[in-house]
Amino acid sequence: xxxxxxxxxxxxxxxxxxxxxxxxxxxxxxxxxxxxxxxxxxxxxxxxxxxxxxxxxxxxxxxxxxxxxxxxxxxxxxxxxxxxxxxxxxxxxxxxxxxxxxxxxxxxxxxxxxxxxxxxxxxxxxxxxxxxxxxxxxxxxxxxxxxxxxxxxxxxxxxxxxxx
Amino acid sequence: xxxxxxxxxxxxxxxxxxxxxxxxxxxxxxxxxxxxxxxxxxxxxxxxxxxxxxxxxxxxxxxxxxxxxxxxxxxxxxxxxxxxxxxxxxxxxxxxxxxxxxxxxxxxxxxxxxxxxxxxxxxxxxxxxxxxxxxxxxxxxxxxxxxxxxxxxxxxxxxxxxxxxxxxxxxxxxxxxxxxxxxxxxxxxxxxxxxxxxxxxxxxxxxxxxxxxxxxxxxxxxxxxxxxxxxxxxxxxxxxxxxxxxxxxxxxxxxxxxxxxxxxxxxxxxxxxxxxxxxxxxxxxxxxxxxxxxxxxxxxxxxxxxxxxxxxxxxxxxxxxxxxxxxxxxxxxxxxxxxxxxxxxxxxxxxxxxxxxxxxxxxxxxxx
Lengths: 164, 368
Prior knowledge:
The structure holds two protein chains of two kinds. Chain A is mainly alpha-helical. Chain A has one domain. Chain A is 91% helix and 0% strand. Chain A has two helices and no strands. Chain A is rod-shaped and about 205 Å long. Chain A starts with 7 loop residues before the first helix and ends with a helix. The mean pLDDT of chain A is 90. Chain B is built from nine helices and ten strands. The relative contact order of chain B is 0.10. In chain B, helix 4 (180-200) packs across helix 5 (205-227) and helix 4 (180-200) crosses helix 9. Residues 13-34 of chain B have low confidence and may be disordered. The longest helix of chain B is centred in the last third of the chain and has 47 residues, at 274-320. The radius of gyration of chain B is 24 Å and the shape is globular. By secondary structure, chain B is α+β, with helices and mostly antiparallel strands. The interface between A and B is large, with 34 and 51 residues.
């Protein structure tokens, strides 16, 4: 029974001691320690959050870069394509024009040649006629130079022209 | 480094107290030299409180028997006022033989309880149960007993540990724990995150943290001190007065912080029919008091039982009067001591977590 009866003296001293202990530890130990611990935890939380934010930003930046790069690449591609097309078109155009010009030139030349040929032929004809006349003149002159020959001719001609 | 410095400081403190009081080496009367060994008396004597701090007995059973004891002040308040004297005045007697005359009164020590002899009585007369018939207890006995001394040693150690830990935080700019702080911080965080937060809730736990941390470490360190053999059974946390006081404080805090919802659950349980409400009311009212009583008995019984088992195993050597039994006794009591080391922490944890649970119940908001 003695063992389970609380002694007044010990209750008294326990109460006083415990209250002093709580008071002093609360003021000088628990408050600073818990404060420091929670402050540190807040700090860690903040640091983690900002790190996460930085990572996110970095990711965004990277994505942006990627996008810009992709766009640039596409633009370059498009420009190259356009240039290539332009080049081809220019070549084609030039070719077509040159062909046209050549055709035209050839046609003109042909026309000129034709005209020249015609003129030449006409000239030739007139010269041939003149020469022929002059030859005929000379021949006639020669043939009819004496009497005998004239008579002979008339005879031959009369012979040819039988009177019927 | 932390542990060794802690130990060194503790030993310094211990010797400081010892030297302040002075070891009282006195020959005993040799009155009980031929007494046979009584394990029950020995165990109860060790488990209970005492006026002096007995360290060792030299030359036991011989003519020049010597007791090494730290004498402690006896402070009693009787009808004739406050009387104080050193416990060494009893000359290690606790059977009521040595009569100390002080302040016109005669004091005797009967089983480590100071009695005041009635006027005219020359020596103590006992009834059949062994209670003194011609002496009474003083009105108030606030002696510095060995439990009180050990309690003060324990709070000195707690102050040393936690105040120096707190200083570490002040010194470091980024609150990185170092030295002793890195040793106590996990324990403090354990009390906060495993006891206070889940039991009380994230919003209200902060108010109760100082109390919970203090009882946790106060009980734990006193449980540990109770296991140190040289301190000779300073069984503070196995003393009902100690557990009673802490349980009463828990009860007061619970009752004071009880909100409307808490009292409604006690007097008019919501959500049950009226006859059930009437039936539950007395049960809940009894429950209010049973909770702290269970706290008180649990700690007291666990710690005392541990001491009793260790002492009983050691007594086997003397009961059988054979050295051959010693290895068995030592092995078993070593085993129990190791278990007790775990129990010291477990009981401190249980007391704290249950207190936190009661605070949590008292401050719980109504569920919608």
